[in-house]
Amino acid sequence: MYVIMVYDVNVKRVNKVLKIGRKYLNWTLRSVLEGLLTEELYENLKEEIMRVINTEEDAVYFYLIDTYNAPHKTIIGATPGEFNFIE
Amino acid sequence: MYVIMVYDVNVKRVNKVLKIGRKYLNWTLRSVLEGLLTEELYENLKEEIMRVINTEEDAVYFYLIDTYNAPHKTIIGATPGEFNFIE
Question: Of A44, A60, B61, B85, which one is least surrounded by beta carbons within 10 A?
Fold first, then answer.
């Protein structure tokens, strides 16, 4: 399935969350990672994230799209060069 | 179709982008809005956004999911109370 992960976490934990996310997904915008994952890898990702966030302060959303193709995406503006596009 | 809009724009333009986005979508996380839109409304949204962003500095992503149902979403951590959930 295709997973879009968006986070809004305390700046103290951004690096940790990002580091875990990037083990599984492509980082495509400041607070967005995305990519194809198996159910099992998605569960691992979620577990790892849960271990580092503060559930009182931080929020992480996972959108799960049941497809083997990425959803259609339109980008307006700058394509952020700092991110590791693997697409 | 279901639209997920994610933005990373200069702080000077955040309010403008958010104000436009909220005319069309629900604001669900700091830099995320989402909801069902017709093709026509989506085009209007995109046009309005293009008028206010600086395409050298800002980036806005639209994920378009061809469905009448929201994709499955898992939220970890705090549900941000400040956002206008209409779900």
Answer: B85
Residues of chain A found within 8 Å of residue B57, distances taken between Cβ atoms: 77-78
Domain count, chain B: 1
Torsion of CA B20, A83, B82, B36, to 10 degrees: 50
B78, A55 Cβ separation under 8 angstroms: yes
Type and span of the H or E element at A8: strand A2-8
- In the DSSP assignment, the letter for residue A81 is T
Q: Is B78 contained in some domain?
A: no
Query: Domain of B55: which CATH number?
Result: 3.30.70.240
Instruction: Kindly determine whether residue A8 and residue B28, on different chains, have CB atoms separated by under 8 Å.
Output: no
Tell me the pLDDT band of A82, cut-offs 50, 70 and 90: low
Is the per-residue pLDDT at A53 higher than 90? yes
Would you say the ipTM is above 0.85? no
Centroid of chain to Cα B50:
13
Rg from Cα positions in chain B: 13
